[in-house]
Amino acid sequence: MKRLKLIKVFTYINGVITVLLGLMYVFKRFMLFKLLEISNDNASSIAVIGGADGPTTIFLTTTQGGISLEILILIFGVITTVLFLLAKNIKKE
Fold first, then answer.
1. What does the alpha-carbon distance between residue 41 and residue 56 come to, in Å, rounded to a whole number?
2. Which residues cross the membrane (predicted)?
3. SS3 content of the chain, % helix, strand, coil (to 5)
């Protein structure tokens, strides 16, 4: 019974994370570009690295790096589905 409770808690937590990631994706993908009037073609990153005793370097990129928000949504969605099915299967036994 304790195991079922733990699985249910993790299912709810993963579900909330999935929904929040989905909302972040919608905000980032649609609303932020509309509010700032930025298109995907001219979105970029600028990084300035320097110090008092060394040269300053400016990095310009045309795309954002890192793990994609869509992949995170997919991963947490799959985890939530598996936990939900596992909890349902344990409940039957």
1. 27
2. 9-27, 67-87
3. 65, 10, 25
Distances (CA, A) of 64 to 26, 55, 60, 93: 17, 25, 10, 47
CA distance 74 to 53: 45
Q: Report pLDDT digits (tens) over 28-63.
A: 777 766 776 666 555 566 677 776 666 777 766 666
Q: In terms of Cα–Cα distance, which of 61, 39, 63 is closest to 48?
A: 61
C-alpha 17/C-alpha 65 separation (Å) is 22
Please report, for the chain, the start and end positions of each structural domain, with discontinuous segments joined by +: 2-92
- φ/ψ of 45, rounded to 5, equals -120, 145
Contact yes or no for 21/69 (Cβ under 8 A): yes
Q: Please state the φ and ψ torsions of residue 25, each to the nearest 5 degrees.
A: -65, -45
